[in-house]
Amino acid sequence: MAQNLKKQAKQRNRAARRAAEAAAEQAAAEQAAKERRQQTIIGGIAVAVVVVLIALIAVVFWNSRRDANANANMSVDEAYSKVQAVENKPARADKQGGILLSNKGYGQKVDGVPTVGIYMDFICPGCGSVNQQLDPTLIKLVNAGQLNLELHFLSFMDSYSTDEYSSRAANAALYIADHDDDPDHLLSFVSNLYAKDFQPSEGSGYKSVSDDKLKEQATKAGVSQTVADKAFGRDYQDWLDAMNVYTPKRSELLNTSGTYEGSFTTPTLTINGKRWNLSDVTAANMTLVDGFLESVGLSSDQVGVEGALPSIGADKDPISVMTGE
């Protein structure tokens, strides 16, 4: 009888183990099924997210292409109307986007002297080169009442940086022009941004420049900390965007020869509204300063001399460095 009891106990134990094993197998199967369902749900969500992202990218790309095509097909008059329709414009910019300054201050011309327009983008290496070579002479001429200066800030080269450097710098320059009454501060700020040890490289060589670094260049130029701190709200971005479309459509600013014939590039300089060809200065084997002085009709020893006025005055075209006419 004792043996029968032991045998029955063993049978019960085996049955219990088999039941436990079956229960464990069932639990494992249920857990695996649950995990598969979860993975299916997660996978479905991931696919849905990817689909949404792709759709959003497609919409953004389509909108950008649509906007680019619309801008490309827009007439110069339509582009001009877009500029004028912007609500928040720089107060000291004229209808074509220029900030006029002279030794009389903002918005006032000295009579009988040339007006030089400079179209620039702050990340443009050519703009930096022109500024470094020519601006010290231009500033002397302005201070002596021998020249009026008209600055055009653009930001169409944002894609050459990772943080929209062109727009941030241009907005700051426009804000300073509107909120600091001393044009020398603006000119110094522009020169600081184009300094060899500050202007960033474009494209793959670009290294991010913070707003704080740009503010330092403003205060170094004499701008108050209060104005500098407020100069980076991008107050004029809509206006800049409109100017970036309008300015390149102005036929009088387009290249007349070379690789970029028929298109707008920076830097572009005008003298009394007439495009001044930098390539002619190179072809004539002249320095930028010498070429400029010849073009306005002034000798190097007259630079900064009050009362020594450029021969072309306020209305004549620049003198050609190629022909002397």
Automatic annotation (TrEMBL):
Organismal lineage: Bacteria, Bacillati, Actinomycetota, Actinomycetes, Bifidobacteriales
Domain named Thioredoxin-like fold: residues: 115-277
Coiled coil: none
Stretches that traverse the bilayer: 41-62
Composition skew (Basic residues), residue ranges: 7-17
Name of the protein: DSBA oxidoreductase
Region of interest (Disordered), residue spans: 1-22
Organism listed in the record: Bifidobacterium scardovii
Keyword presence, Transmembrane: yes
